[in-house]
Amino acid sequence: MSKIVIEANGRTFEATLRDCAATRALLKRLPATYEMSELNGNEKYVYLNESLPVQETAPKTIQEGDLMLFGSDCLVIFYKSFSTSYRYTVLGRIDQTSGLAKALGAGSARLNFRLAQ
Question: Which of 46, 48, 114, 117 could make an SS bond with 34 (beta carbons 3.0 to 4.6 A apart)?
Answer without folding.
Answer: 46
